[in-house]
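I hope you will forgive my troubling you with a question about protein structure. I set the record out below, with my sincere thanks for your time.
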Amino acid sequence: MNQTRTFLLFALLAVAYLLWMAWEQDYAPHPTNTPTTTSTTAAGGNPVPGAAPAIANGGAESATATAQLITVTTDVLRLTIDTRGGSVVRSELLKYPVTPRTKKDPEPASIRLLDDGATDYFAAQTGLVSADGAAPDHRAIFQAAQTSYELAAGQDALNVDLTWTDPSGIKVLKRYTLHRGSYAIDLDQQIDNGSSKTWDGNAYRQLQRVNRPVPVYSNYLQRMSDQSQYGFFGAAWYSPEQKFNKLGYDKFEKEPLQSQVTGGWVAMMQQYFLGAWIPPAKEAETFSTTVVNDDGNAPRYVIRSVGPQISVAPGQHVSSSAQLYIGPKLPDVLKNVAPGLELTIDYGMLKIFAEPLHWVLAQLDKLTGNWGVSIILLVLLINLVTFKFTNAQFESAAKMRKLKPRMDALKERYGDDRQKMQQATMELYKKEKINPVAGCLPLLITIPIFYGLYYVLRDSVELRQAPFFGWIHDLSAADPYFVLPVLYTIVMLAQQWLMPQAAGMDPTQAKMMKFMPLMFAVIFLFFPSGLVLYYVVNGLCRLLQQWWMMRRHDAAPPPAKAAA
């Protein structure tokens, strides 16, 4: 099989993918921002029948007490904790700037994952509920000893204590423990029963978030180049039985979650980052989702984990623990936080290709310190592994070119009789020992690698803002000056110039081949520069291999020596 079918199939798949992405942006169903009739005070019902009343979902808080904000800073996180509920309402990821660092802006603002602003609201909330006793939910006012905490030099852990006391004698200590270099935060809720009767209730953890606003783009190119719009944005959960599951915001009311899970977690995901609550591995939890509508604001989507019933006898205390992860999707880190949490790096159906590619790139980056150089080395490794198959493709194409005069003769003989033409062609291939399918093997390898690498570059946080050289400051974004797409177009033109027209190519295919470089130039304008870099280097390797094979197979035979 010659280069023609490779280019045509690749172009068809790439164009189809771009059309699908554009359709998703324009016509795919999105959650509406108009309020619905969902209750704000008792949505979802009682998570544990008979154990506790329904958890209040509403965002509106009582005005009878005032709350304050507490700032907590470590080497990787800056959190803001609201004493109303002891909720984490802001989180800045100090190692991940919004824009790449430059000489003009060496310290850009950090990514804010949790946010208490109305437009990007996202909070990690916790609380207790009780059927017949006092309990602080995520709206109760807690007290703190100070308003600012910072991890000191040489200190490995930092505790932030919040307390709540009820006149009945129930006291709750909510303690967050942050660790140096870690995005995982320990939470402990200790219930001290100073009353005269047994306290029964449940602990819960939940993530509450609004849907992201629809981005506004200045032009079509900017819109198509924004890879973040194609990543999953919504809720996710994991159970050992059902494994990894996702729930888009548009499906919260159509497909609500209500499930008993032991050894799982709940999360809110976006491109590169996530927030997740991880309950104790051996606790039976109730996972559920609901939609909160109040005050005419945009709907808030809630995914919740409710623990088993807790009983605290008078004079006793009991603790309920969990872990909160607020940070990047780093596979090695997520694996150590909770089973299955690394699945939030969602490569979809191409996981079987994307994960090995990511692993190889990560190992190469450890050697080179540059993801762009690692991509180049990955190209060389793949070409080395597939050399035999690619060689077979070029050999097949060379043999078919030599058959062109005989193929033309068959066309003249059989004219429009396609059946006889096809039968004669196959007999000729058999006689000359040509396998037309031999050229398909490189294509079967190239296409999965292309799309697998696309997902790696789009969803791997390590490649976010990863610079290469010169003008490329972010391999996960499109080339700002379109240099790489132009270089790839030049490489394609060189391949066309070097490769004579294949035997049996009809005039329509020949015309399409002439327009192929322009088509690819347009397609690659929208793809991450790291992916285009991969194909520029791969194209150069193929060009060199093609030149070498043509010298080997198409060179004119040496002149015969004159008889003595």
Notes: The domain at 65-212+234-346 is CATH 2.70.98.90 (Beta-galactosidase; Chain A, domain 5). Confidence is low (pLDDT under 50) at residues 1-5, 18-52, 59-63, 556-564. The first strand starts at residue 69 and ends at 73.
